[in-house]
Amino acid sequence: MKRVKQNLKTIMLVLGLLLSVGSATAQGRGDGPPPGGMDKIESLRIAFISERLDLTPEVAQKFWPVYNQYVAEFKALRESSGFGPGKPEPTADEALEFEQKKLDLKKKYKTQFEAVIGKDKVNMLYRLEEEFRQKLRELHDQRRGQGGHPGPPPGGGPPPR
Fold first, then answer.
1. Is 125 part of a structural domain of the chain?
2. In the predicted model, what is the mean pLDDT of residues 138-149?
């Protein structure tokens, strides 16, 4: 029971931090996150994955260098494929090719991850990455729907300026 309460507290902390990052992003320029915003998101991703995978300090010390290399290769793949904000919509062939390259990258790192955290946690890792991205998308959509404003405070009254 104590572990469940600790997990709930951690999840609430991560969600609170996500909300604050989303708020900072909404207040920044409209063409991307504010300076340091990506660093905050990466810090939240690390905390989220560490907590959910329940990594020991020894395992984390081996895991994070491999994971960071995986993320760096994924970012390089994305940039070389021409995907991202402000880029033209990819063709179906380009999108399929990109998806195949992403899958190849996951396969490449799967064995390295398994050697460090085990098969079960690798399965969990890939699910956690998607869960984290989904939470960011939901937060982004929620902020966009509110126009970047937090809305009226509980109990009524005009929204804060």
1. yes
2. 78
Give the torsion sign (CA, 14, 141, 77, 129).
Answer: positive
Burial class (CB in 10 A: 0-12, 13-18, 19+), 47: middle
Q: Which domain holds residue 40?
A: 2-82+90-145
Q: With a threshold of 0.85, does the pTM exceed it?
A: no
Structure tokens at 96: 């399929």
Q: Is residue 153 part of a domain?
A: no
> DSSP per residue over 91-139, as a string?
PHHHHHHHHHHHHHHHHHHHHHHHHHH-HHHHHHHHHHHHHHHHHHHHH
**How many angstroms separate the CA atoms of 94 and 78, rounded?**
12
In a domain? residue 74: yes
